[in-house]
Amino acid sequence: MSTNTESSTLQRIKKFWGFESSSVSHAEKLASTLGGVLSIFLIAFVTNKITGATGATLIVPSMGASAVLLFAVPHGKLSQPWALFGGHFISALVGVACYQFVSDYYLAAGMAVGLAIGAMHVCRCIHPPGGATALAAVIGGPAIHAIGYDYVLIPILLNALIIFTVAFVFNNLFPWRRYPVSMMRFSERPQAKPVNLDRLIDRNHIQQALEDMDLVVDMTSDDIQRLFALTLEHADRQRLQSAQIRVGAYYTNGKHGAEWSVRQVIDEAASDDPDKDMVIYQVVEGRGLHSSDSCTRREFAEWATREMAPSNGAA
């Protein structure tokens, strides 16, 4: 078998299984792992201290799935607060109702999950762990059945409140992670836009395309728009030039994890001599936060990979 044939076969196998090379830094993987450990420990510990509950009424297994989303994909659409709280709350209600009003055990289990999915769709709060929350209300055993609709408040909403609090505090300890995603202070801005790029990646067009494909994706329209623009930028191999560095603008080094940094150019000492054409910058996010320094405009352009756009209130 030729090398090309082997490569093609391997690519088909990877595509079938949905396997892609990881683009996530080791720091991000470690942060996700620690977040999962901390969140589940605190859910069990705090719930027990508040309620004295044990066993099935202490913590629902679906919180393990929520931990994966909130700490491994904290910027995903399915991880955001409305998805977390709305998804678990609605699913818990549906699950308890199905157990109480559907006499057939197997049908009640199926209806709980199916109706929870439908309700989350309608309320725009799809959170995959919600399916497990609804199912647990039916198959959770006597301890769950005995508390009836109180299941919605304790353990479900109490568990959700604890994991949300942990995710809010923990994710915001790392400059490259924010939760909720609306707290991100800066987002990627393409360095240069090709002709008609605004038309090509208008958010309304993206939303229409998703509706045409009838897909639910774990990205917002804004995320897809930036992804599209940055993909075109990388495809064109565009690089920042010294002349593009301007006072007041924000730039990132494009690093992952703890190395990530955002600088704002706050002043300049312009000169026709590249060795004397200086800029003064302040670190506004990430490594070296709040520090200031200066360098030549050429050195700054070599450090920066792309311009950033401050979110509302970030500047």
Describe the structure.
With 315 residues, the protein is of the alpha+beta class. Helices cover 53% and strands 11% of the residues. Strand 3 (261-269) and strand 4 (278-286) form a beta hairpin. Helix 2 runs antiparallel to helix 3, helix 3 (62-72) runs antiparallel to helix 6 (129-139) and helix 10 (203-213) packs across helix 11 (221-235). The longest helix has 26 residues, at 26-51. It starts with a helix and ends in a 5-residue tail after the last strand. The model is unreliable at 192-197 (pLDDT under 50).
Number of beta strands: 6
Secondary structure category = alpha+beta
Q: Distance between termini?
A: 58 Å
Indicate the mean pLDDT. Answer: 86
Strand order across the largest sheet:
1-6-2-3-4-5
Radius of gyration (CA) equals 24 Å
Main sheet? 6 strands, antiparallel
Structural shape = elongated
| Pattern of helices and strands | HHHHHHHHEHHHEEEEHE
Q: How many domains in all?
A: 3
Low-confidence stretches: 192-197
Sheet-strand content, in percent, reads 5-15%
Q: Helix fraction?
A: 40-55%
Structure annotation, total helices? 12
